Amino acid sequence: xxxxxxxxxxxxxxxxxxxxxxxxxxxxxxxxxxxxxxxxxxxxxxxxxxxxxxxxxxxxxxxxxxx
Length: 67
Fold this sequence. Notes:
The protein is an alpha+beta fold and 67 residues long. It contains three helices and three strands; from the N terminus they run αββαβα. A hairpin with a 5-residue loop joins β1 (14-16) and β2.
């Protein structure tokens, strides 16, 4: 049986921590910064943790070897 492929789009958008949680970049900072408040822009830096049910879906469907 051939190897299963990891989804390339998911590879670019998600990373996994050492404990197995999924991280993603904070949404809403690609364009339209003038509409956003300064508080939002400050808080929307770095990475955010994906919820536990969504992490299970990611591992099952998009990262077949990330168990």
